[in-house]
């Protein structure tokens, strides 16, 4: 016989529901704005942001790990972006089985044009809603949840 799971207390459910609603609405609005401002999808933006932060190139598996994406999703995304000239795939010089994802000049230009508009929207929709003390607390809480998740199986 299956035991009934311990349901969330009303206050816990309210906190969870508010967090999920905020996160979904924020990501949705930012994604639509990126697309409207730059013709990059949110996924394009994430890939290019990580690549340019890492000096324009990164191992395929490391990029997938950083984005928390399955290899198949990463592969499809890189293929779509390569067809548009935003990234290229290269063999990894120190591992014949691995590959690198490289931002092309067009990809670098696209992220350089999109980033200021994205930051403006992040500021308008998120940062400006909170005081600096609240932002610090939010960052601390987020890091604590991330660290907790890293200690959990699966």
UniProtKB/TrEMBL annotation:
InterPro entries membership: HTH_MarR-typ, MarR/SlyA-like, WH-like_DNA-bd_sf, WH_DNA-bd_sf
Gene3D superfamilies (UniProt xref): Winged helix-like DNA-binding domain superfamily/Winged helix DNA-binding domain
Domain of life, source organism: Bacteria
GO terms (BP aspect): response to stress
HTH marR-type domain mapped to chain residues: 1-147
Origin organism lineage: Bacteria, Bacillati, Actinomycetota, Actinomycetes, Kitasatosporales
Gene Ontology MF terms in the entry: DNA-binding transcription factor activity
Source organism per UniProt: Streptomyces albidoflavus
Protein known as: MarR family transcriptional regulator
């Amino acid at each position: 016989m299956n035991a009934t799971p311990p349901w969330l207390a009303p206050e816990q459910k309210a906190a969870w529901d508010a967090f999920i609603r905020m996160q979904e609405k924020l990501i949705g609005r930012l994604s639509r704005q990126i697309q409207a401002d730059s013709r990059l999808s949110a996924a394009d933006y994430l890939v290019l942001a990580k690549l340019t932060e890492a000096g324009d190139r990164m191992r395929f598996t490391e990029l997938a790990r950083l984005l928390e994406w399955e290899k198949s999703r990463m592969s499809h995304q890189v293929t779509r972006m390569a067809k548009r000239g935003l990234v290229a795939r290269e063999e990894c010089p120190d591992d014949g089985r691995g590959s690198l994802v490289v931002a092309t000049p067009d990809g670098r230009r696209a992220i350089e044009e999109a980033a200021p508009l994205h930051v403006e929207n992040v500021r308008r929709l998120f940062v400006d809603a909170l005081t600096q003390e609240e932002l610090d607390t939010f960052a601390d809480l987020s890091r604590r949840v991330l660290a907790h998740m890293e200690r959990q199986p699966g």
